[in-house]
Design a protein that fits this description.
Blueprint (H helix, E strand, L loop, with lengths): L3 H13 L15 H16 L3 E4 L5 E5 L8 E7 L12 H17 L7 E6 L12 H7 L4 H6 L9 H8 L15 E9 L4 H5 L3 E7 L1 E10 L16 H20 L3 E4 L3 E4 L9 E10 L2 H22 L2 E10 L2 E2 L2 H14 L3 E6 L4 H5 L5 E6 L15 H20 L1
Parallel strand pairs: 3-4, 3-5, 5-14, 6-13
Antiparallel strand pairs: 1-2, 2-4, 6-12, 6-14, 7-10, 7-11, 8-10, 9-10
This protein binds zinc ion (ZN).
Zinc ion binds next to loops.
Length: 411
């Protein structure tokens, strides 16, 4: 059985390995603190007899060789980097539970036929480059020489290539790409990052889909003028047009798609942006997420149609562009079934659900069977210093992961 104490030690040690920050943990990729976290994990992997290696872009592996050298690998893990002022569980929980499963395999004295790899990916969060899922996309092969030069640090302006070299690695894409490797399964355990499991009183989430995302960029054009001289019924106020549209779309989503889709305006810009001027321009974003393609299509249709009505009503022009369109990613149904079977066998409460956030698993699903296990996030908090996954849930997660690995190994 999994040992909470070991996982507690790993989580609490990594929590303290942080850049100075106002609160929480801050360990962006390719920093001295990231290196320190990796060295700690290497030590823990070696302590339990795993072969340790880092690929050319900084993904970390702890490998337990299987008894059958021809058998494909089973890989489990998540990301080791963090956002700014983060908690101690996002990503890290998945690496620590994957390592705990390796320790359980070692303690069982019953080696696997398949090689088992514990993975800690680098650059999953967009903290340093504004680009997410870097390490996994080098492994999957869609990132290569081009991204080494095109991806640049948000603060230092250095290219990814320069950053990786300064970190002490070559960055050679060929040394990271695993596209040709046969892999039996990739399993990512992750904090849910939402309140659904906790509210339902369930310990284990079986992820069925990772959400589709549409980013709509909306621009509203009006006419700037004096705020005191233009009567309300003749002005062309770009701000009012934007607010009407945002309220209409979010209300529509809440009425028709609560629990199915989300709509969020996270960025809004008013021009000229002064107290004594009617806004002439307003640009804003609508982030639409859902696993239901019909819901996405309907929300986009509603946005476009409502924009036309609001444009007439508010005497403005409105343009709606879909800047990002990413399909939802169904996880591997066989892995879903195994996670469900393992949770049931262990007597843990569980439910099937979707992931509202993107994860490395959706990248690996392009080339390998990939699945996810979610653990409850206390109060749904994430990307927050108080982020918490209860250690009893970490223990359950590691036990489920171990069972799934055993079942895959015996197939
Ligand atoms: Zn994460």
């Amino acid at each position: 059985m999994a040992d909470q104490k070991r996982m507690h030690q790993d989580i609490e040690t990594l929590r303290k390995i942080s850049e100075p920050c106002a609160a929480g943990t801050q360990r962006p990729s390719y920093t001295p603190e990231y290196r320190e976290g990796v060295e700690y994990m290497k030590g823990r992997m070696a302590e339990f007899g795993l072969e340790v290696r880092e690929d050319t872009v900084g993904n970390l592996f702890g490998v337990l060789r299987g008894t059958d050298p021809e058998a494909p690998s089973i890989i489990s893990g998540s990301h080791l980097d963090s956002v700014k002022c983060s908690g101690a569980f996002d990503g890290i929980a998945g690496v620590v539970c994957a390592l705990e499963a390796a320790r359980m395999i070692q303690e069982s004295k019953k080696p696997l036929k398949h090689t088992y790899e514990v993975l800690g990916t680098i650059g999953e969060e967009g903290t340093r480059f504004g680009q997410v899922l870097i390490g996994s996309q080098f492994m999957e092969g869609s990132f290569g020489e081009a991204q080494l030069d095109s991806v640049k640090g948000l603060e230092d302006g250095l290219t990814l290539r320069e950053t990786i070299r300064n970190y002490g690695l070559t960055g050679d894409p060929a040394g990271a790409c695993r596209r040709q490797d046969k892999v039996k399964a990739f399993i990512e355990l992750h904090a849910e990052q939402g309140p659904i499991l906790e509210n339902a009183g369930k310990s284990i989430g079986i992820v069925e889909n990772i959400v589709a995302i549409s980013w709509l960029e909306v621009s509203v054009h009006g006419v700037a003028s004096h705020p005191g001289t233009i009567p309300m019924d003749v002005r062309h106020d770009a701000g009012v047009g934007a607010f009407e549209l945002i309220c209409a779309v979010t209300r529509y989503a809440a009425q028709h798609y609560n629990g199915i889709a989300t709509v969020t305006t996270g960025r809004l810009n008013l021009l000229p942006g002064s107290t004594n001027c009617i806004p002439s321009e307003c640009d804003f974003t609508l982030d639409i997420r859902t696993c239901d393609e019909a819901a996405r299509a309907d929300l986009i249709r509603y946005t476009v149609e409502t924009a036309k009505q609001v444009a007439v009503k508010c005497r403005v022009e409105i343009n709606v562009q879909e800047a990002v369109h990413r399909e939802h990613v169904p996880t591997d149904s066989h892995i879903e079934d195994l996670v469900e079977e393992a949770a049931a066998k262990l007597g843990y409460s569980h439910m099937r659900m979707n992931s509202g956030a993107g994860h490395d698993a959706m990248i690996f699903k392009r080339i390998w069977p990939a699945g996810m296990i979610f653990l409850p996030s206390h109060e749904g908090l994430t990307h927050h210093p108080d982020e918490l996954v209860a250690f009893e849930d970490m223990e359950k997660g590691a036990n489920v992961l171990y069972e799934v690995i055993r079942m895959l190994d015996e197939e």
